[in-house]
Design brief:
Helix content: 40-55%
Number of helices: 4
Organism: Noviherbaspirillum saxi
Oligomer: single chain
CATH architecture: 3-Layer(aba) Sandwich
Strand order of the largest sheet: 3-2-1-4
Number of domains: 1
CATH topology: Aldehyde Dehydrogenase, Chain A, domain 2
Shape: globular
Largest sheet: 4 strands, parallel
Structural class: alpha/beta
Distance between the termini: 25 Å
Protein name: DUF7684 domain-containing protein
């Protein structure tokens, strides 16, 4: 991956995954520079929690510098288009300008172009 840190990540969960895999991905997001993670789909509140925990773990559960803090939200009762709109227009970090957004789609079938177009139209 090229240098895009810090960034926003929209995690779209359409497939059940193991807890261990979810934790590995959550840690990877934090260590890669994700500073705002929005989760949508299957069990998205557990992603909110696992990324929060990964952020704390990255600093040994000590004080986290404001610019390193990871903001998280879950959007379980919303349409995906609403979560995209929120990501694009309302999800702001208090200490970082997040210019880049990554869409992480966890699913059996890829929908890359469809998701990119939906995000661009939001």
């Amino acid at each position: 991956m090229s240098e895009i840190s810090p960034f926003k990540a929209i995690v779209i969960i359409e497939e059940d995954v193991s807890e261990f895999w979810q934790w590995d991905v959550s840690r990877w997001l934090v260590s890669s520079g994700c500073r705002y993670m929005l989760a949508w789909g299957t069990e998205c509140t557990s992603w909110d929690e696992s990324v929060d925990e990964a952020g704390l773990e990255a600093f040994d559960y000590e004080d986290i510098p404001e610019d390193q803090r990871v903001m998280t939200t879950s959007h379980d009762d919303e349409e995906l288009s609403e979560a995209f709109w929120f990501a694009k227009h309302r999800a702001h970090h208090p200490a970082q300008e997040l210019r880049d957004t990554i869409i992480l789609h966890i699913a059996e079938q890829a929908r890359q172009q469809e998701l990119i177009e939906m995000y661009e139209d939001s």
